[in-house]
Amino acid sequence: MSGINYSEKIPNNVNLGEDRTLQRALEQWQPNFVNWWDDAGPEDSRDMEVYLRTAVSVDPQGWAEFGHVKMRDYRWGIFLNPGSADREIHFGDHKGEKAWTDVPGEHRANLRRIIVTQGDTEPASVEQQRHLGLTAPSMYDLRNLFQVNVEEGRHLWAMVYLLHKHFGRDGREEAEALLERRSGDQDNPRILGAFNEATPDWLSFFMFTYFTDRDGKFQLCALAESAFDPLARTTKFMLTEEAHHMFVGESGVSRIIQRTAAAMNELKTDDAAKLRAAGVIDLPTIQRYINFHFSVTIDLFGADESSNAATFYSSGLKGRYEEGKRDDDHVLKGQTYKVLEAKEGKLVEKEVPMLNALNEVLRDDFIKDSVAGVNRWNRVLEKAGLPHRLSVPHKAFHRNIGALSGIKVSPDGRVVSEAEWKAKVDEWLPSADDRAFVASLMGRVVEPGKFANWIAPPVIGINRQPVDFEYVRFA
Ligand SMILES: [Fe+2]
Ligand SMILES: [Fe+2]
Q1: What is the model's pTM?
Q2: Least distant ligand from the CA of 213
Q3: 62 pLDDT more than 80
């Protein structure tokens, strides 16, 4: 494994200096990236010095360094996990063959599409979160937001490196386009739906980092199995950073629930109006935010039946979550999987070829993983002695992609009429009133150690620093 070269303009562990053409191309892209950051990155953050971790190695024993840096001077770089020369493809039609160090011509278009789609989500989430710094509930949370933002920027670098190195002129054009699309833009939006939704408040932000960054985890895990070795090695390192993003989401929601539960006990009530008057977020509102972010996120896995998914798997481009730990034949021909469809007003299971259902397989793995965290949130309620529980909605609820997109389904999985949907939608998804209430709580609390009223402080700080550490220095 080669060390990280920080003396170069672009920190890297890929011997970038030995490939002058590639180095020059990336050095030309670099100022465009910084322009994008200035234009679409965290608002009014230019002079702040933020206590960030910067990747300095891919060694699991210590890959990051912490220190106060201005975000636009963050050392975004290119880091691949170490490869092994004899790695074999372990699924699909090429199983047993040597993994590819370059892109085979016949898979070029599909691989480019996979990398561009993944790459597009990274700057999109930074754009979605760009105003949140103005309403941070604490200096600690502000720092965490910015850490997530710079790392999504680095994930963009990771995909852009692959495009530049392996896809020639098309790759360079795609890398430029990644800086041109904008989340929510009418004319030039980001590629995937959930990445064009607004992230208007911190409850949305924590839900997004819990659910949608977890989609990122599952996509990256599937790509970490890829026969295209540079993609596998890049995504493996991205996963080490992704874990923190999901921690931010899970602990953020958990601290909100903790504060709400304390107010419920103090006031001896679960009346939403009384709790709102006390300045905390009532559990039904939290549940509706869960319903929204969960449903929008599971759409990201794509149609339940997809011939593209079959092609990506069989040709070795994208594996399953934890492919190596599964004890089937890793080819999956002749195997089946159950997907849902609506028949005569009811949801029924239908058996389809597993290869075509691999989006659904990944979605189901994601659902299992997200439920685990919701159970941990419920433990906060349990500890507070409250009988209330949160849950994820049925997977057919509020879907916009696949066979379930044409029907209306309640959070508990009943197919409902258009009329019932309209009558109940404000109980099931955040209403304009919910959003206005949550927005009304969003002040700006940034004195060290102080927290907004609607969220509990964390138990410990970042990198073993105290909770009241000066995580952000304002100019
Ligand atoms: Fe990311
Ligand atoms: Fe992330």
Answers
A1: 0.96
A2: 2
A3: no
Ligand nearest to the CA of 244: 2
286: Cα within 13 Å, side-chain hemisphere: 29
Ligand nearest to the backbone CA of 120 = 1
Q: Which residues pair with residue 336 across a beta bridge?
A: 353
Assign 3 a pLDDT band (cuts: 50, 70, 90).
low
Note whether 475 and 158 are within 8 A (CB).
no
Ligand minimally distant from the alpha carbon of residue 157: 1
β-pair type (346-353, 336-343) = antiparallel
Supply the range of the domain harboring residue 391: 16-473
Compute, in angstroms, the gap from residue 208 CA to the centroid of ligand 2: 9
Gap from CA of 121 to ligand 2 centroid (Å):
9
CA 216 to centroid of ligand 2, rounded, Å: 6
Measured in Å, residue 307 CA sits from the centre of ligand 2 at: 28
In a domain, 3, yes or no: no
Domain count, the chain: 1
Which residue is associated with the tokens 């949550």? 438
pLDDT digit string, tens, across residues 213-224? 999 999 999 999
Distance 378 CA to ligand 1 centre (A): 27
Tell me whether residue 11 is in a domain.
no
Residue 1 lies in a domain: no
Q: Is residue 7 part of a domain?
A: no
CA of 125 to the centre of ligand 2 (A): 8
129 CA from centroid of ligand 2 (Å): 12
Please report, for the domain that includes residue 359, its CATH number: 1.10.620.20
Q: Work out the end-to-end distance of the chain between its first and last CA atoms, rounded to an integer number of angstroms.
A: 40
Cα atoms in the Cβ-side hemisphere of radius 13 Å centred on 332? 27
* Collapsed DSSP state (helix, strand, coil) of residue 228: strand
